[in-house]
Amino acid sequence: xxxxxSEIVQQEAMSLFQDYQNLVExxxxxxxxxxxxxKLYIQQMEDVLERYRIFMKRFELSDDFMAKMTVEQLKxxxxxxxxxxxxxxxxxxxxxxxMKSEIGDY
Length: 106
Hints:
Elements: H1 7-27, H2 35-61, H3 65-80, H4 85-103
């Protein structure tokens, strides 16, 4: 059985995608959030990023051909933007830390 044949993998991939899309959409209104709303948004984004990091690590460690292809596709896409997956996660983390500092007393 391949990694994408797993119902659990399919559900988590769909959940991650939907959660991230919802947060990106909400992010367009971030400036209108009150302080508590901003804190909640940042926490939810951190949670999704951690889930994504774990999801991708499972793919990296898998022996499944499609999992390895998925990781390579991500590396290629990010490489076209001049970054690695680790740099992407680091940049997202820095952005969230900057957002935290802007609202103060996080």
